[in-house]
Amino acid sequence: MATLHHYALCPHSRFIRLALGEFGLDATLVEERVWERRREFLELNPAGTTPVLREDSGLVVPGPGPIAEYLDETRGLALAERRLLPEGPGGRIEVRRLLDWFNIKFNEEITAPLVLEKVMKRFMSRDEGGGPPEMSAIRAARGNVRYHLRYIAWLTAKRNWLAGDNLSYADLAAAAHLSCVDYLGDVPWDEDEAARAWYARIKSRPSFRPLLSDRIPGMAPSAHYDDLDF
């Protein structure tokens, strides 16, 4: 069985956990507190970031993008019409564009600052960057959520899923990031019914269930976090 080094509220880790679930693959989860910069983990990924997938063969694949590409190259054909990265170049470009949108833009504007300020700083020493949350960063991130929800709604008004007719890596990445923000109670779902309906479809998939059982010590999720009828 493969091993996935992850952090529970790391959106990139959640993206790969969702992908593994869609592929029907099990992996042993090893939690990494990346701010501790554990030597054994840095030997796997000198960048010190999660996720990192390690196969039983010893092959190490670091980062959400490389892992997603690796899974598609090694297991994608087996999914047939459910393949998460389309076969055609146009479809692949659109999925990769949206992967950048969520794994880079959404992360920088929303997920990373919220998780850092509201969660990670609670467990980090002062030398590691811990301390009280920066409220201005939290307010800015919360404000940015609305813009991204509107973009998701715009995409789903034109398509069955975010990148086209079929579920893809784009949907999994977007849902992974929103699930982190939703855990913290910072998604104004009542303001965008279309985005909420799309998220409910993802949230109801079997691959999503393990994420709904995640808990951060000393920090309970929002009241509707694991409610499929939110």
From TrEMBL:
CDD domains: GST_C_family, GST_N_family. This is Glutathione S-transferase. InterPro entries: Glutathione-S-Trfase_C-like (IPR010987), Glutathione-S-Trfase_C_sf (IPR036282), Glutathione_S-Trfase (IPR040079), Glutathione_S-Trfase_N (IPR004045), GST_C (IPR004046), Thioredoxin-like_sf (IPR036249). One of its GO terms (biological process) is glutathione metabolic process. Signal peptide: none annotated. It comes from the Bacteria. SUPFAM superfamilies: GST C-terminal domain-like, Thioredoxin-like. Homodimer. Residues 1-79 form the GST N-terminal domain. The keyword Transferase applies. Residues 88-230 form the GST C-terminal domain. Keywords: Transferase. Pfam families: GST_C, GST_N_3. GO terms for molecular function: glutathione transferase activity.
